[in-house]
Amino acid sequence: MQFPLIGKVAQPKRWVIGTVAAGILVVSTATYFIIDRGRAKTDITALTVPAQSQDLTLRITTSGSVVPVQSANLSPKTAGRLAALYVDQGDRVQQGQIIARMDDAELQAQLAQSRARLAQVEARLAEARAGTRPEEVAQARARLAQVEARLAEARAGTRPEEVAQARAQVEAARAQVDLASKRLERYRYLANQGAESRDRFDEASTEYRRVTASFNEAQRKLQQLQKGTRSEEINRISAEVAEARQALAQSQNGTRPEALSQAEAEVAVARGELQAVEVQQQDTVIRAPFSGTVTQKYATEGAFVTPTTSASATTSATSTSIVAIAKGLEVLAEVPEADISQIKPGQRAEIVADAYPDQVFQGRVRLVAPEAVVEQNVTSFQVRVVIETGKNILRSGMNVDTTFLGNKLNDALVVPTVAIATQKGQTGVFIPDRNREPQFRPVTIGATIETQTQVLQGLKPGEQVFIEFPKNRKPDESS
């Protein structure tokens, strides 16, 4: 039987296993202490900085551009041809200086016509105010006497001697017709025989027609005298008498008030028409609305230009304008809605242009726009900054960064902005715990100024905050 042998052998194996297990336990414990001591010796000095109290000045930096303080595109009030242009790009101009002239040939003709019209109606008004002259009254009285005599004659009828005279004129005219007829026949015969020229025959024909017409007229007058004056003729002459009497009364009484008022109204209308043409003619002269510099030249002499309105698009405004004039320079900055409460008129500002990155120009807030501008769903306010230094260097259209210097914060507790973190929707910082491991602490932050952020609550001066984490340790694992 070999069982006892087996049992003896089994005993030493269990001891060896136990010894190995004990060795593993000792090694694990030693390893733990070594690792723990290694962690305890980790140097976090280079990974953390203390929260410090400092005096800070709020600084809000935003982009912008240099623009003219005042600018205008000059164009005519009516479309036409540019006759003359007296300035070029870069010229300095004074307010009221003539910049250009439009073609005004048609307006000159209208001006002459309007002046003549005014002179005419003014003469009529002067005549109406002066009243009727004595010779005009005498003429009206003579006219009345003449038509009254004709009316009396028409009403009295035809006298016998007039009828006899008319009958005698008819007989004389008949004799002339008979004589002319015989002469015409004789010249026709001689002309046909070739014994007389054709011209003599034509003269005889003309004479015959003349005396025949005279005979017919004499007969008509005789018949009219025999019948007497017709009633319609008497009525016509009576109307002439009434008209002559009215004219005489008007000349004796002078110009009627309504006629004088009408003449005055015609003068007023003529003066208004002349003034309108004069204004149009004056508008053909393009003058500088203010003193400044000609920044752009859009047209040349002979070009056709049209009026430009403030609502015109940029392309259409420049394509129909003559020149552009600008006055002064300022910075137009776009400030986000969140920062606009920190901007006030008179506030100091620092200006850095892309063209001069190493120079800082000084400025001061002139105006904060009362209405926001929304572009691509971003709300901002325009702020205009007066340029106090660098006016001779900066140019219109340059891109700049403008930093607005706000209120001064005394003893503000600040940490580097890189130390601010967000965990589970909360804003805070990571501070070292007892084992010098990063631990999240919620804080309330204030303004961010350059690389520093103000801490309002949750942190004390001198407390260390992590600005960089130990290797292989993420903030979510350490918190």
From TrEMBL:
Membrane-crossing ranges are: 15-35
Multidrug resistance protein MdtA-like barrel-sandwich hybrid domain residues: 72-313
Statement: the UniProt record of this protein carries the keyword Protease: no
Top-rank taxon of the source lineage equals Bacteria
Q: Where in the cell is it found?
A: Cell envelope
Q: Which UniProt keywords apply?
A: Coiled coil, Membrane, Transmembrane, Transmembrane helix
The residues covered by the Multidrug resistance protein MdtA-like C-terminal permuted SH3 domain are 411-468
Q: Which GO terms describe its cellular component?
A: cell envelope; membrane
Ranges in a coiled coil:
102-183, 208-280
According to the UniProt entry, its GO molecular function terms are: transmembrane transporter activity
Q: Where is the CusB-like beta-barrel domain?
A: 332-404
InterPro entries, alphabetized: Beta-barrel_RND_2, MdtA-like_BSH, MdtA-like_C, RND_pump_MFP, UPF0194_transport
Q: Principal place where this protein is found?
A: other
Q: What is the similarity comment for this entry?
A: Belongs to the membrane fusion protein (MFP) (TC 8.A.1) family.
Record's protein name: HlyD family secretion protein
Q: Which organism is it from?
A: uncultured Synechococcales cyanobacterium
